[in-house]
């Protein structure tokens, strides 16, 4: 006699996994909240220790943020800085990715461009602030070009590193099967290089925030860098704290959005962020 054993239902297992994932997510959120509260507590203690002339307290910073938001200064500064960062970073990505692909795949291009990349990537954008203002004026162009300069080398180097990291055996196997250069690029090189491109884009975004502050301090009437510098001139430490914290929050939001977009759009390439 054959005994038929019923298979256990899959639904309870799926439900348990969903519950574990939900609990893990809630635990992560809880730890983040606790970490932020601890940071605010340490900030308050430092403000009490050194006084309002050196360290603005959390409540004073919040009041100053409300003051700056009320007259539109904070909003206008966020919009101006965000626009400059996104345009310059986007142009750096648009140029850096194809150049990196060319450098990684074609040896003669790498030999021609490598001296320039290795030379200019060690010169910080701050060194070009004066020249950018002289050549392009105090308008938007000078700030956008400086951010582009910041982003393009980072994206190019990461992209080329990704191309050169592709397994030679995969390339030879594809070529032996009759794949064209374009098919190899689309089917092997790009999927393997996407994680490097995403990493380069995130690093370039972070460095763009470093550049925008120095650029706006020198040549801008509106922007978070200009707000920080103007606050310093007026002796408003609380405004300085508002500008610095806003930069951090803005960078955090930009990076999170970039990670979400990359993980959803490029998931088929195996990118895990």
Automatic annotation (TrEMBL):
It is a multi-pass membrane protein. GO terms for biological process: alkanesulfonate transmembrane transport. The keyword Signal does not apply. Gene3D superfamilies: MetI-like. Residues 78-262 form the ABC transmembrane type-1 domain. It is found in: Cell membrane. GO terms for cellular component: plasma membrane. It comes from the Bacteria. The chain crosses the membrane at residues 26-46, 85-104, 116-138, 144-166, 209-231, 237-258. Keywords: Cell membrane, Membrane, Transmembrane, Transmembrane helix, Transport. InterPro entries: MetI-like (IPR000515), MetI-like_sf (IPR035906). Belongs to the binding-protein-dependent transport system permease family. This is ABC transporter permease.
